[in-house]
Amino acid sequence: MAKGKMYAMKTLRRNAQRMAHFAPAGCLAAVILCLGFLALNPVASAGRTPTCPSDMAFVPAGDYSFGTSKDKIKHIMKICKESIGNCNDQWFSPESQHYGHAKMQPVCVDRFEYPNEAGKLPATGADWRTAMKLCEARGKTLCADLEWEMACAAGTRRAWPFGGVFEKHACNVEGRGIEPSGSRAACVSPVGGGIYDMAGNAAEWTLSTMDEVYPDQGSRHYRVIKGGSYMDHPLFTRCAFRDAYDPAVNYDTFGFRCCSRPR
Questions:
Q1: Which neighbouring-strand residues pair with 203?
Q2: pLDDT value at position 157?
Q3: Tell me, what's the pLDDT at 115?
């Protein structure tokens, strides 16, 4: 028997002798059995699967792919010049900053943009700090850049939440205005039973800066925006695309969604 378990059993016997003066025999036996089980099984619930509230999707832990390779960015630049004309490679270079793999912890992600209710218009026009406070009021926080991306791309380098090939009407991209959450059934990442509108509709604030995934919440550095809005070209609504803005701005195309740790 391991030394730790031997010490635990000796401690149990010693405590049991002390308790014998106060507890009836039957109760004492039950106490000893329970304490013995806990000593030999210190984390009895370790095998339980983490869960999320029903209005949030569970994104499991794992080794996830992120970002875009430099070769792929060259291809994106080619498409950009063909479809937009005057393109700047700095628009896409931030994607290569975190290109590769990362081991991620599980996370719960809102199924819809805040207020996280199907059929309701997303809340837009909030600056970053207001978005943080609204998430915190629900016991949550803004999603980190990598958490957002792993939920959008379903753990792969798929370009959009619905797949690797752009589908013109799948999401509210190059549209006419903000639509109620979940209006487009095809605009869904399959993770955790479905996460909607991660491409287009409202661009979404994240917790992160370009340099830090989990920065000091008081930092005034520009914060990463993900997903693009209904006004954007498809290239700017890809899961890996990263943009950043002053946390004090409050454009009416900016929204957000919240994340939390699984229970």
A1: 254
A2: 86
A3: 98
36 has pLDDT over 60: no
Phi/psi at 188 (5° precision): -145, 135
Residue of 231, 255, 238 lying closest to 95 (CA atoms): 238
User: Region 125-133: what's the mean pLDDT?
Assistant: 97
Q: pTM (2 decimals)?
A: 0.81
Q: Which of 3.30.1180.10, 3.40.50.720, 3.30.300.70, 3.90.1580.10 would CATH assign to domain 56-260?
A: 3.90.1580.10
Write the DSSP assignment of 59-94 as a string of letters.
E--EEEEES--HHHHHHHHHHHHHHTSS--GGGTGG
DSSP state of 48: S
pLDDT above 80 (res 44): no
Residues in CB range of 8: below 8 A, 6 or more apart: 39, 40
